[in-house]
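Appendix B.2, paired examples.
Example (i):
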Amino acid sequence: MPWDGPEIHTYNQPESWLNTDNMNLSSAAIPDLDTLATELGTAVAESGVLVGELTVISRHPNIYCSTFPSEIVTCRLGDRQKIRVLCKYSAEVDNESYGTRRGIEYETDVYRQLLQTLDLSCPTFYGAYREPANNRTGLVLEYLADSVRIIHSSDIGTVFEAAAWIGRFHALCSTRISSPALSFLNSYDPEYYRGWARRTLNMEQQSGLAPRWLETVCSRFDEVIEMLCEAPSTIIHGEYYPKNILLHDGLIYPVDWESTAIASGEIDLATLTEGWAPDDIERLELEYQQARWPQGSPYDFHRVLVAARIYIQFRWLGDPRARLKEYNHYLDALHTYAGEMGLI
């Protein structure tokens, strides 16, 4: 089983959510039924599918929600068809990520300005709304019933398909990073990368557990940063772990785009390939390269990928919440990749 990224963002749902027949979900982050119906009608009208009044038939908890609360809502549009949507809500949560995660409003812009314009499998964007009373944002997406997160798929082929999907995505987006419509996107600069190494070293030194080699790696991290910043930039998912990728009707559907950024595409491949067997990693890398660069990948692809893997370890070592559970995993991996890069 591959390493699936840290499980550190859990929204504690109230017990009332456990009753799937409950139409009065009692959470400060969840709109009441009347507000939900009104705001959903406003949001879905943006997509052009709403005819007449929108009626909420049922609402159920999304058991896979992570940083932000979400629910699955079944609606009737006028007197015609029913649709099921996934509603994600902004909320006051402990979401400090030092410039990585940007929230529901940001993810809404990613869907509106980028994802729905691409010829790739992606949940339908039905719209978004902002509640005047509390300034809370709701993101409304197609609910992909009967989908499975590829980490739970018994078919390794789905992960290879995910590698090809993100390769195609990076190829398409490499020509869009200068688009005025995407000027809102976060961009990884040298100071962003340095912050993760700095926080890692500070926490290690304060704990008294810092291995001797860590200071050397941190002092030479600018060599890694230079490689990542000089590599061709594109738009990345940011946390392209198998837990954030759905398989639905045989197609790949990445979800949770709040960490989208302009950066080296190898970062997404680094997260996808964590923890797989060496032969599988080699195949994943090949699928990615063929999809992104059909005419041949850059000569320094593998070194840039190792640099991305070093960054990923710092990304989680420098996050105090992730360190609670997976400290040794990150540290061991950092030592391995730093040695491969020749930093120690």
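Example (ii):
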Amino acid sequence: ETRGMSLNQAGFITGLLPFVGIFAVLTGGALGMRFTGTRPFFLIPGLLVGLGGLGSFLFGSTALIYLAVIMLGIGSWSFTPKLLSLPMELVVTQQKVAVVWGTLVTVSGTGMFLSPIVIGALRDATGTFVPGFLIFAVGAWFLFLAGIIYPKAASRNQS
């Protein structure tokens, strides 16, 4: 609407995110089997998500928006295999894994529910989508932050 795109073009751009994600998650899994380090699997996707998220609504040209959405798709999906295997790396109890995954699903589900409402309300109040998008684009940088604060060598005997 804001960029004057047709519904077909907007739909294609939106569909590009999960399409790229299919290949990114497979690549992330293959790389996770080859490399033991965890930090790069959060740092690099975190950087891609942060930059792609901002670029997806700040870039003016359609070609740059495509690039931003591709970066967002790669970043959003490529870290998932490493994240799913992280409890095995840390050797934690089943109960702790259940609490962590329950919290993760609850927080992410709440964000998915609230983000369109918050963005729409801010759009109505300000006349632009940018403030609402900025709020959630800042949140995307938490994956990069996780890569920074993740210990270089995770303790393998935590309980």
